[in-house]
Design a protein that fits this description.
By secondary structure, the protein is α/β, with parallel strands linked by helices. It is built from 12 helices and 10 strands. Strands 2-1-3-4-5 form a 5-stranded parallel beta sheet, with helices on both faces. A 5-stranded mixed beta sheet has the order 7-8-6-9-10, sandwiched between helices.
Length: 329
């Protein structure tokens, strides 16, 4: 498969442009690579040395492919590759080396290099090796998604939630910003699934997953499938007031769908620091869960905010001025 096809597959999975950083001081190789990437539409940045490489990555760690050129005199390449992998363990490192008969290429792979090409090389050889590297990167992305994503709804799975909630709560407590949690139950889903069939049930869950992603902030909030018909949303930098506005947005969007027999019950709770991290997490989940069951007692497509959240934070101003991060549609 052509390397550009792997690029397209990667961009489809990640939903962002593939970014490549090239560190090359040899003017001839630089011109060659500029010509190679000229009409690809990829986001390419050239730098001249190791210092520029580290500085660029510290400012923007979202580069997915790093192409590095080393000569026999370069002694800092192990440090550079180590720093790159520290910044982003998933980045792919492609090394261009001067040819030396006695060179032990194994040491480059041992320190984190993913692909090597020796000078002089043809564009066809470079294209083949780049294609191989992009294929590996694509398969790594697919594997990672398989591990953390629910394949039906395309939201994160329970395993991911159990890990990321620790990280998000820890950061919120340490940096002292609000974090809220939404527990969502699809009322009557089992009845709907039994009476209309599993294909219709799957279609409903897929639609609901899309609504959740459209209702929250990309790459900030975390949408997870908690159980069969239960979902949970982690909302960093969000007070219970703003979280309730997001719950309202979700309900409004759901009401426009053709699944009238299945309604939503949403519980909202804001993080309160307890004696330990574990107790803070379990307390947050329990309060959101109880609020969700309170919502079930009310009219359908409804949300309830945990009482303790309201009591503790009712006098605090919302960081977003009590406005939702997106308009209600």
């Amino acid at each position: 498969m052509e390397y550009i096809n792997w690029v397209n597959l990667i961009e489809k999975e990640t939903k962002e442009k593939l970014k490549i950083l090239i560190s090359e001081s040899d003017e001839k190789i630089k011109i060659l690579l500029e010509e190679f990437f000229k009409d690809t539409g990829l986001e390419i940045k050239f730098v001249n040395d190791s210092k520029e490489t580290i500085k660029t990555l510290s400012q923007d760690p979202k580069y997915q492919i790093i192409i590095l050129s080393f000569s026999k005199q370069d002694e800092d390449f192990p440090f550079l590759i180590e720093k790159i992998k520290e910044t982003n363990p998933d980045v792919k490192v492609f090394v261009i080396l001067d040819y030396h008969k006695e060179e032990d290429l194994g040491k480059y792979f041992e320190i984190g290099t993913d692909e090597i090409i020796l000078k002089p090389f043809t564009l066809n050889e470079f294209k083949a090796r780049l294609s191989k590297l992009l294929k590996e990167h694509y398969l790594d992305i697919k594997l990672q998604k398989f591990i953390i994503e629910d394949p039906l709804t395309e939201v994160y799975n329970r395993r991911y939630f159990d890990e990321i909630i620790k990280e998000e709560v820890y950061k919120a407590l340490r940096q002292k910003y609000p974090l809220s949690l939404m527990m969502i139950d699809l009322d009557n889903f089992k009845w709907y699934n039994d009476n209309f069939g599993h294909q219709e049930g799957d279609r409903l869950l897929k639609n609901f997953g899309k609504i959740l992603w459209k209702s929250v902030r990309n790459k900030v909030d975390k949408v997870c499938r908690y159980g069969g018909d239960e979902f949970v949303v982690i909302l960093p930098y969000t007070s219970w007031k703003n979280a309730s506005l997001i719950a309202k947005r979700i309900c409004k969007r759901w009401e426009k769908k053709d699944f009238k027999l299945v309604t939503l019950s949403i519980g909202v709770a804001q993080l309160i620091e307890r004696e330990t991290l574990e107790k803070s997490i379990s307390d947050l989940i329990n309060r959101a869960d109880k609020a969700m069951y309170e919502a079930k007692k009310n009219e359908k497509d409804n949300w309830v905010v945990d009482e303790e959240s309201i009591k503790q934070f009712s006098n605090e101003e919302s960081p977003n001025g009590d406005e939702p991060s997106q308009p209600l549609l």
